[in-house]
Amino acid sequence: MTSSVDGVAVPPWLRRVVHRTPADPHRINPVLDRRAPRGAITREAAVLVLFGGPVEADPLMSGGLPAGADVLLTQRASTMRQHSGQVAFPGGASDPGDEGPIATALREAQEETGLDPSGVRPLAVLEEIFIPPSGFDVTPVLAYWEKPSAVGVVDPAEAERVARVPVHTLIDPRNRFQVRHPAGYQGPAFAVDGMLVWGFTAGILAALFAVSGWEQEWDRHDIRDLDTVLAELDNDLDDDHLTHGHGRPAAER
């Protein structure tokens, strides 16, 4: 379920994303069904799914998606104990002083990327999703970047990269496939700008795109080995003399 923030104006091109429940019409996205086992001890967390771009929809594009639409992503430091090198939404664990998941998502995003929270318009809160390796119950917070501010890596020990990734690049069928983890997980993935987006982050994006009206048909039967894809991306980065490492995946996010 999606719980919209009352009284907040939603850009026309984001209305379906905000007002419709994220979906998995082809049954290839296991992330949406993750709930904590009965009696499990969990920790509360939140992530910021922050879309930027023009307010007005583009009438010539599917779903009205503007040419400049993007989403904010980070790449975790390869030295981190959990989820090293993985691409994620900015976010993290709740603090006792946080007044709900929106406050947590904004605070964590500011700490990780340096963004100014006053320029962010929260739009909706999604249902919690359980992350088995870390034991977090994560609440995705959908938001619109009303007044974008400069962002970048604040603490290299936590993040190697902060990027505004074009939505048009993410929905390009050439950049979409499924990955299979050695532990058995299989789910949607995106290859963008030298990064592999998979697991929890890819699951949320895929579920939102499925109801957005922006999605283009892509090859869901293209299933690739996760380690192989990561190795190929690392080799490409080495060839281009870039320094953003991907690390080895821990357990599936």
UniProtKB/TrEMBL annotation:
Transmembrane segments: 195-214
UniProt keyword list: Hydrolase, Magnesium, Manganese, Membrane, Metal-binding, Transmembrane, Transmembrane helix
Cofactor: Mn(2+); Mg(2+)
Name of one Pfam family that matches: NUDIX
Domain Nudix hydrolase span(s) in chain numbering: 41-192
Keyword Hydrolase among record annotations: yes
Source domain of life: Bacteria
Keyword field contains Protein transport: no
One GO BP annotation of this record: nucleoside diphosphate metabolic process
Molecular functions per Gene Ontology: coenzyme A diphosphatase activity; magnesium ion binding; manganese ion binding
Coiled coil: none
Family: Belongs to the Nudix hydrolase family. PCD1 subfamily.
Cited PANTHER family: MITOCHONDRIAL COENZYME A DIPHOSPHATASE NUDT8, NUDIX HYDROLASE
Descriptive protein name: NUDIX domain-containing protein
Organism the protein comes from: Rhodococcus koreensis
